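Record type: monomer structure entry
Structure origin: computed from sequence
Chain ID: A
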Amino acid sequence: MEISLSRELAGWLQQQLAAGMAIPEIRAALISRGAAPEAAIDRLCVNLRDNGFKLTQAIARHDGALQPVVLDAVPRVDTRAPQRQAAEPFAPLHPLPGADANRIEIDGRDIEVLATLASPHAVVLDGVLDSRECRQLIATSQGRLKRALVVDSERGGDRVDERRTSELVSYARGETPWLAEIERRIARLTGIPLEHGEGLQVMRYGPGAEYQPHFDHFDVAQPGQAEHLAYGGQRVATLVIYLNEVEAGGATVFPEAGFSVVPARGRALYFAYTDAEGRCDPRAFHGGAPVEQGEKWIVTRWFRQRPYQTLA
């Protein structure tokens, strides 16, 4: 299939990709401006999804006012795997500021840096929340818990999956004044603007509950996941704060990196997994090991590359 694009339109595509515009948004904009037949636009968006800048740069090299571009001539790239050489160092889009120090001071609160990891970029912290705040999050959430779901990669929306057997409550961003203060503290700690964060999720893992290893970023090759990019772009980093002591099990594990974090009240794990080009570090593959005794409570925040807008 061929589609004729002007250099102006090719330049527009490059600008939108550089700004983090999601493929569904690009598709809607192209259709609204009548840039080409819808079938051709769909094919273009598939290639943009799979090849990104390579395609638009190839388009821009044409000299004519309207040069046809043979889309099928561009090889498909598997975006589920990072597109960098193994020896190339991973430069995260959002490294944690001050992670190379022993302590980080946030509004008079002394946060201790317990451990760091280069790949994925991960930092273990102590003191992001105090014991009172941890207990309050648990108490506030107990009556609102529901079975945790996963993104339906084929049809969109969410579904039950036996790989994730926790319960959770999702809070709206800034739902209460004290939750808003925690969110502001997290923004100051991570250096990621408040509006780029999804709402906090408090999760409970009972005996035997787990979340098998997975990636937190969206797989753009799966239509049900790609649709989430329209609400703030790709996920780029995660913060997990442990709210209680766990008798046994429940560690956060990174099997590709040989790294794990044992839960402890007030302990936090921050990890960034995408670089400036939106590629994910394969070592960011992680999971929540089964709880062997007791229960595990955590609060999680995911961060987007652009301001996050809720689906509601």
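Annotation 1: The chain is about 25% helix and 25% strand.
Annotation 2: The two ends are 37 Å apart (CA to CA).
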